[in-house]
Amino acid sequence: MEFYKAAKLIFLAIPEFEYSYKEELNPDYYNLFLGDFGLFVRDAIKHNNKVAVRCLVFISDLVNNNVNDEDFLNKMSINILEVLTDYRETQIDAVKYFSGHCLSMFQTLLDNGYFNNLVD
Questions:
Q1: How far apart are CA 103 and CA 109, in angstroms?
Q2: Residue 13 belongs to some domain of the structure
């Protein structure tokens, strides 16, 4: 998925992130942009912010609607899904609200041995 399309989709779905994002949009920093979104979601979960569930459902839908875009899925995994492995509560919420391919990708991260599975 092209950078500006991804940014537009994220900003439309989660305007709270757009309001908080202070960097200039630049396709050279695609991974940084997604990483910042991942941190935004992680922090929303940690602080019980009402936007957290909307973010998780959006991420799940975005991944599930782009299963044939391997490059985009890799970016999503590295920059967002991996960030959500940081804490028990982020893992629990991700497992609860992710579905389909997104849940499978996240579960693989938890089960591959590189990240602690804190859900069990």
A1: 10
A2: no
How confident is the prediction along the chain (120 residues), in pLDDT tens digits per residue? 999 999 999 999 999 999 998 889 999 999 999 999 999 999 999 999 999 999 999 999 999 999 999 999 999 999 999 999 989 999 999 999 999 999 999 999 988 877 777 777
Three-class SS of residue 111?
Answer: helix
Q: How many domains does the chain have?
A: 1
In a domain, 59, yes or no: yes
Q: Give yes or no for a contact between 6 and 21, defined as CB atoms under 8 angstroms apart.
A: no
DSSP 117: -
- Could you tell me if residue 77 is inside a domain? yes
